[in-house]
Amino acid sequence: MSLQAIHNIPEICAQLGITDVVLSPGSRCAPLTIAFARHPSIQVRTVPDERAAAFIGLGLAQAQRRAVALVCTSGTAGLNYAPAVAEAYFQQIPLIVFTADRPPEWVDQLDGQTIRQADLYGAHAKGSFQFPADTSHADAQWHAARIVSEAIGLAEQFPAGPVQINVPLREPFYPKPGEELRFEAVKVTRELPGRPQLPATALAELRDAIRSTSRVLLVAGQHPADTELLLALHRFAAAFQVPVVGDLIANLHLPAAPDYDQRLRPLGRQDVFMAVPEPGLKEALKPELLITFGQSLISKALKLYLRNARPAQHWHIQSAGPVADTFQSLTKVVRMEPADFFAALTEMPGTTESIIGSKSSDPGSIPSGTTTSTGSASYTTTPNHTAAQDATRVARPAAPAGTPRLVWPGSGGQLSDTEALAKAAYLKPWLAAENWATGFLQDFMRAPKQPFNEFTAIYHALQQLPDRTALHLANSMAVRYANILGVPAGRFVEVFANRGTSGIDGCTSTAVGAALAQPGRPVVLLTGDVAFFYDRNAFWHNYATPNLRVILLNNHAGGIFRLIDGPRQQPELEEFFETRQPLTAANTARDFNLRYLTAQSFAELESVLPVFFAPESGASLLEITTDSKTNAEFFEQYRAAVKSSFA
């Protein structure tokens, strides 16, 4: 059997921009392994555990923003990829999954390491391709090369995602002694990316609807850091005086330009102020027109609020692919890139120079002497809201008299005075709530005489994150704590989390992949004990990650269940929900050559954090040990304070 078609696979991958392969050793995949390992333009990393390998590949792809290939042997090896494949599908990350297989005639014939591998990932892959078992004919060779090109193109088309190529292989697998592999000049098919654009008339209609609606709210779901998008958002928000809200994983907190002014920062304290039991505040924040982009939200409070608020109109901005009706109010899908959409609205005729940028007014800064006029944490309810009259337009209530107009660069540049007053009346309570929540958190987290607890420990750790950090948040409480607390204002900290499926199974491996992809950048993983010990094989490889820092919150239990109404009231809590365990990470750190640091008090934490984050410390693991009951009691104090402190 000729293996030339197999040997051409790495060449096709290289021509189409794939530079990284993560493989797990096996016999059936030997031809793929040898071909990738010998290709001069491909970097191959070996990770024995297929589950960890797939998440490491996901982390590489996530950090590099391009497709990564996975290679495994036949049988259950490919099934171990499934959690990462599902996460990649819902997080829209391109993976090319090569699963070596037995020849088709041996499937279901009780042959070893043989399962039904065709379409192995079902609805959780964008596509599944079957490589020809016999490539002796010229047409079969053309077919084989075409399959690989098509699969890579499909994986990278928006919305990106994983694609399987199942490769049946017959023996012999190995080249003869002294035989050299040839990488032929293979024809590839390239996909040129495009960005859809709406007609000017449609954009004008949408712009008019935004102008004529006083209560417009923009909410961002999970999204990679994107400076172009951030600048477009700031200009849009200023031009139309629209509150912009996003979880930490939306990456709206990042500085949009070197001279970025924090008074233009989008809102991110919704997990705090949405917990305030004040119906007047909830009414004041209620939108008539909701505009969204991005993927999932962490904030359950915001998600439930928007479902109950029932805006008359909900537009989602997404260039292609299926759109979820997360808030049960979706009325319009706008097929554009979010950055293009928001830029187009502010660059249409009638826009002032200060919005689109001019020599005298930079959109990333606030002119001296101006303020945001947010005031205190008071709020104003705008009366007499009317329902939408048609599929586009939302009726505008009369502007309340005496409402101050906010003064940002280009503030209200698209609006008449009456429209600007009405917009400011809606924007003001959002800004006031954000300001209150920021001040409340700062005072609460710095209060003296606290018991040592993981919530406050995370607060102190986040304050010391190095600039340019890639912050990875493990699922369960780590991502929730961080979403409440945020990261230091003005610091470039890009945030990642596996919120496609929100599983704990590969959080550490994903961070390891990111550290391998960006060796010159600090990569910090914030994780809990259950997620950490579940994924210890993330470190089972032979590649240095001196830029990796792992902050492990070890409360010797699944502490989230003490914080959720339902399980915490049950007598089975400790045995059947908390996953109690006596482990420490000392052995893991020793086994995988990680510098091991510990903290069991605020004094120890304050002493160890500078050492932990120091570049010369190398790959390090900081284990913060707390008591699960104390953590739950302190978090209850926090929640009670939120409910009683708003004024």
TrEMBL record:
The keyword Manganese applies. CDD domains: TPP_PYR_MenD (cd07037), TPP_SHCHC_synthase (cd02009). Binds 1 thiamine pyrophosphate per subunit. It catalyses: isochorismate + 2-oxoglutarate + H(+) = 5-enolpyruvoyl-6-hydroxy-2-succinyl-cyclohex-3-ene-1-carboxylate + CO2. GO terms for biological process: menaquinone biosynthetic process. GO terms for molecular function: 2-succinyl-5-enolpyruvyl-6-hydroxy-3-cyclohexene-1-carboxylic-acid synthase activity; magnesium ion binding; manganese ion binding; thiamine pyrophosphate binding. Its EC number is 2.2.1.9. Keywords: Magnesium, Manganese, Menaquinone biosynthesis, Metal-binding, Thiamine pyrophosphate, Transferase. Pathway: Quinol/quinone metabolism; menaquinone biosynthesis; Quinol/quinone metabolism; 1,4-dihydroxy-2-naphthoate biosynthesis; 1,4-dihydroxy-2-naphthoate from chorismate: step 2/7. Residues 360-383 have a biased composition (Low complexity). Signal peptide: none annotated. Its cofactor is Mg(2+); Mn(2+); thiamine diphosphate. It is an enzyme of class 2 (transferase). Catalyzes the thiamine diphosphate-dependent decarboxylation of 2-oxoglutarate and the subsequent addition of the resulting succinic semialdehyde-thiamine pyrophosphate anion to isochorismate to yield 2-succinyl-5-enolpyruvyl-6-hydroxy-3-cyclohexene-1-carboxylate (SEPHCHC). PANTHER family: 2-SUCCINYL-5-ENOLPYRUVYL-6-HYDROXY-3-CYCLOHEXENE-1-CARBOXYLATE SYNTHASE, PROTEIN PHYLLO, CHLOROPLASTIC. Homodimer. NCBIfam families: menD. This is 2-succinyl-5-enolpyruvyl-6-hydroxy-3-cyclohexene-1-carboxylate synthase.
